[in-house]
Design a protein that fits this description.
Number of strands of chain B: 0
Low-confidence stretches of chain A: 261-265
Strand content of chain B: under 5%
Distance between the termini of chain A: 44 Å
Number of domains of chain B: 2
CATH architecture of the largest domain in chain B: Orthogonal Bundle
Number of domains of chain A: 2
CATH superfamily of the largest domain in chain B: MetI-like
Oligomer: heterodimer
Shape of chain A: flat
Order of helices and strands of chain A: HHEEHHHHHHHHHHH
CATH topology of the largest domain in chain A: MetI-like fold
CATH architecture of the largest domain in chain A: Orthogonal Bundle
CATH topology of the largest domain in chain B: MetI-like fold
Strand content of chain A: under 5%
Mean pLDDT of chain A: 86
Shape of chain B: flat
């Protein structure tokens, strides 16, 4: 029975049978018992692997024989002798630089559209969110058919309007835009819902005050809504960057799925235009079993991601407004 | 000095305002309809193509209503030896259900410690937990594979399921936030009555956080159902594949002569259960996502 007695009285009261462990220690132990699954998991599946990645990157390791120390050989080879590496850097950077801002814009746009008090708005919300539930395999399948250069739905419609129908997934210049379209269609759902929640958090009184002051719709958006949304934008931006750097499944399937000559290695698309960083890493690790080399790739991406995230976080001081009173 | 506005001017102004309002309502509706239509078209195309005979899939002009409607595509796809539907489904359910149980159980216990227990190092460990949410999976992928290979778990679902029984940062965070909104009176009463931590958690806290548990469960179920990369890395026998991997294998097994309509049928069958689940639990899904984006740390 815990008591609020000052410690001296407590000690006197318990002096006959002083417990071995102090109260605080017992409390700590109980808590750590509850935490134990997570702590074990952290050590085994997060801490150890992260450190091990750094270690493996400095070895030559093919799983069957123990790792052999080679120092920075993997990194040298990666940066100077692997044209595919630089191709994937370009492809992934392109993908990130286009899909993340566009994705934010699309998600925000959809959220704004949905932020109306209408009957039946739930139906539209469902319609916009549904694509996020679809597995990547299905997304690539449907879009491959729709994007068929000759007779797919998209090109046939474009031609009906007199526009040329690009080669999409078969063309080196249009493959990435096609991939980005697929990603935007299926990836906007979650970000849209988060934006929607953020929009609903904006006090109506502020908007009304702006209206009374004579602000039109655009001005209200730019000076009231947008600043108050910056924390949400920041959140979605970080998540978007982390995810798009590691894009794998749609790139893998779009280049090796149905109708494409492939043996499950994860193709690269026309002229390697769809070879993404993660797909190349997968190839090196699980096709060539060059674990050391693949680990070096992982470390490079990790470092790049950390740096970019730091830059974004730093920049947030300048453009993110927190409700706790103006800028941080 | 009262300035009177002539009546006709007032009436005109009111009418103009009403017209503007109706126009903006109509415009809003039209825009919603247009964009929603664009978003839904791939689904429609999926369904339509799955019901087409092969020679009506790639045509100019486009065929929107197949004739005849080939319901047989579904029976053909589901009974095709290249797409063993029932086995794929049972594998998927095995993975989804077990991983959901694992994460719900472990995340609840851990979140309770963060939310309700006072212990030294609590803030530090919680900060570390948050940090791991941002850790890209790429950096743990290979060593985890090496570890699981050492355990002898490659070729099974164990690498995909077991780690979830040790908690996952995101779910712990979500649950902890939710638990912290539960008034202390409710749990304090039980403590005073002599209940142990575990009893309080199990008997009092869990029933109170059921909505959050449901959200976590749904998200994990869906993530497992759609997971491609994990099974791709760890499973090597077709008999173990989940639906998504089976669908991929179905696609690549055909080589140059792809039967798109059968693929679409198989694809629809793969996607349908999740969509159905979503419709049944919409409210929780949407609230859950909103929770993730707001009170972020």
């Amino acid at each position: 029975m815990s008591s609020a007695l000052p410690s001296t009285e407590n000690r006197r009261a318990n002096s006959a049978r002083r417990p071995l462990l102090s109260k605080q220690l017992r409390r700590d132990l109980r808590a750590y018992l509850f935490l134990s699954p997570w702590l074990i998991g952290l050590l085994a599946f997060t801490a150890y692997p992260t450190l091990a990645s750094f270690y493996f990157s400095l070895t030559k390791y093919n799983i069957l024989t123990p790792p052999r120390w080679v120092g920075t050989d993997n990194y040298v080879k990666l940066f100077t002798q692997d044209p595919l590496f630089w191709k994937t850097v370009w492809n992934t950077a392109y993908y990130t630089l286009v899909s993340v801002p566009l994705g934010l814009a699309v998600a925000l746009g959809l959220a704004l559209l949905l932020n109306q008090r209408r009957g039946g708005i739930g139906i539209y919300r469902t319609a916009f969110y549904l694509p996020s539930l679809v597995p990547a395999v299905v997304i690539t399948l449907v879009w491959s058919v729709m994007l068929d250069p000759r007779l797919g739905l998209i090109n046939t419609t474009l031609r009906a309007f007199g526009l040329p129908g690009p080669g999409w997934l078969r063309s080196a210049t249009w493959a990435k835009p096609a991939l980005i379209m697929m990603a935007l269609w299926s990836g906007s759902g979650a970000a849209m819902l988060i934006f929607l929640a953020g929009l609903k958090d904006i006090p109506a009184s502020l908007l009304e005050a702006a209206m009374i002051d004579g602000a039109n719709r655009w001005q209200r958006f730019r000076h009231v809504v947008l600043p108050l949304l910056t924390p949400t934008i920041f959140f979605n931006l970080i998540i978007g960057i982390i995810n798009s750097f590691q894009v794998f499944t749609i790139a893998f399937i779009a280049t090796s799925g149905a109708g494409v000559a492939g043996s499950g290695t994860g193709g690269a698309g026309p002229l390697n235009s769809l070879l993404m960083y993660m797909v190349l890493l997968y190839r090196n690790a699980f096709r060539y079993f060059d674990m050391g080399y693949a680990s070096a790739m992982a470390v490079v991406l990790f470092v790049a991601l950390v740096l970019l995230t730091l830059v974004v976080v730093r920049s947030s001081d300048f453009w993110v407004h927190y409700e706790s009173g103006g800028r941080r | 000095m009262q300035q009177t506005i002539p009546q006709p001017a007032v009436a005109t102004a009111r009418r103009n305002a009403r017209i503007r309002r109706t126009a903006s309502t109509l415009l809003g509706h039209a825009l919603l309809l247009l964009v929603a239509g664009l978003f839904i078209i791939p689904f429609i195309w999926l369904v339509i193509t799955s019901l087409k005979p092969t020679n009506q899939i790639f045509t100019d002009p486009l065929i929107w209503i197949p004739s005849p409607i080939m319901w047989s595509n579904y029976t053909k796809a589901l009974t095709s030896p290249a797409f063993p539907f029932l086995r794929l489904l049972s594998n998927t359910l095995f993975y989804a259900v077990l991983s959901t149980i694992g994460t719900v159980l472990s995340s609840t216990v851990v979140a309770y410690a963060f939310a309700r227990m006072e212990f030294r190092g609590r803030n530090l460990i919680f900060a570390i937990t948050l940090a791991t949410m941002m850790l890209p999976g790429i950096v743990t992928l290979i060593p985890n594979y090496v570890l699981f290979r050492w355990f002898g778990w490659v070729g099974t679902y164990a690498p995909l399921i077991v780690p979830l029984f040790f908690g996952s940062a995101f779910n712990i965070f979500l649950l902890r936030q939710f638990m912290m909104t539960i008034p202390f009176d409710l749990t304090d009463a039980a403590y005073i009555d002599g209940a142990s931590d575990f009893t309080v958690l199990w008997r009092i806290m869990v029933p109170l956080v059921k909505p959050a548990l449901l959200v976590i469960g749904l998200f994990q179920f869906m993530a497992a159902w759609n997971d491609f990369q994990g099974p791709l890395i760890y499973l090597d026998k077709a008999a173990e594949y989940p639906l998504v991997l089976g669908l991929y294998a179905f696609q690549t097994s055909r080589g140059a002569t792809v039967e798109w309509n059968l693929m679409m049928a198989a694809a629809l069958v793969t996607t349908f259960p999740i969509i159905l689940l979503f419709f049944l639990t919409q409210r929780y899904f949407i609230e859950g996502i909103a929770l993730t984006g707001l009170k972020g740390a």
